Protein 1
Amino acid sequence: MTTGYVSQIFSTLQGEGPFVGERQIFIRLAGCPWRCRYCDTPESLSAEGKPLMSADDVLDAARRLNTERPHPTVSITGGEPLMQADFLATLLPGLRAMGLKVYLETSGTHPALLRRVADLCDVVAMDFKLPSAIGRSLWAEHEEFLTIAGPKAFVKVVLTADSTAEEFEQAVNLLASRDPAPTLVLQPVTPIAALDERLGNRAPNGHPKLTPPSPHHLLDWLEMSRQRLPDVRLIPQMHPLWGLP
Ligand code: SF4
């Protein structure tokens, strides 16, 4: 497929994970099947009303940004960009031909779609979606996804005051079973109203904001995961502090 629904194309600093502070071109695709409570891109959940762009038009926009200022990396984000995997298969070779490393930001839940483009990605920044955040268990999908992504993957877990010790331990168990175990990034949620409140699906419940775990829980989980895994980082979202998108 040579066209895709695109929300935004812009240049900014990566605000999450091990690449924090790196300047990247962001290509934000529209559409996502999930509704994570902490989602901070609600405008990209649906493709409705978003421009349908050709791969050539997206490449032209990326080339313009890269001419104004050289970028090492292009972030392919969303929404869930893998929902348009055929479009990515057309687009990504052109981005790499510009000398850009491809950094895929994904929910880590659609292994069959990753398989179509895994060879075209340099870094796979995947989430583990905890059941408390998404309303169901996705461990089998995450495990298969990790297998396909291989050493390109690191895993981010967004933690809230509603995250439980049991689900966090399940995430660590899954990572500890991999050889080598991927880097794990613990990201305490940036305080934000739950998604369904922001989308107007329910009235405010008197606890309008998702909040991070208590320092006690966070430190406990950090220590526990560091005993089981070789590389665990605690990195909050930085771009809201910098006032960047
Ligand atoms: S997978 Fe990402 S884009 Fe989709 S709802 Fe969750 S946080 Fe938002």
Protein 2
Amino acid sequence: VYPALELRRTVRWYQERAVGEDVLARLAQAVTLAPSAHHSTPWHLTVICGAPALRRLAVAMAAAWDRDMAASGVPAELRRRRTERSVRRLGSAPAGILTSLDTRRLAGDAREETMMVQSVAAATYAILLAAAYEGLGAAWNCPPLFCPAEVRSALGLPEYLRPQALVTLGYPREAPGPRPVRSLEGALTWIRAAP
Ligand SMILES: Cc1cc2nc3c(=O)[nH]c(=O)nc-3n(C[C@H](O)[C@H](O)[C@H](O)COP(=O)(O)O)c2cc1C
């Protein structure tokens, strides 16, 4: 597992080369190995093949982002730069997998809901690890969280799906830079047995 953890990096730009459906099917299958609360498997995957469908999705998400930024007073020029870059990046990926929470699995209080969201995140990480193993670059993108209705409409998804993350996928255009050094300083506590 440790080499797999090392191998995975966020890769945001890809070659035009298509990702085979067989590969995408294996990535989807990897989710079935992820843990989920109460073994609820509360996820739904939408596998998106080819840049045109991703572009449609990217354009819809960018329009929602632009509307939100305008409402909070972001200047038009900055909004244009941000949304154009977002469409260029997300809309040019050769493939993607949208992970959604199947809200029909929700029952109970907010803590239960958190567990379901955590389970979808665990599934999303399984896709990233499997993608790295397949030699693919992948990036976890959060925009779907901010505009679920637009995402459902762009992809024709039912109302009961709550989009969580768009994993863009493709053969890497370039190797990622050196991994930023992260330390556990301030984020690690040991509780040791008394001697
Ligand atoms: C919940 C979550 C949301 C993220 N959203 C985005 C995003 O919207 N756009 C993006 O470029 N990267 C996104 N990332 C990727 C992080 O920026 C990335 O993991 C981080 O910079 C560390 O780099 P590494 O993945 O190569 O270790 C997201 C990661 C997580 C876990």
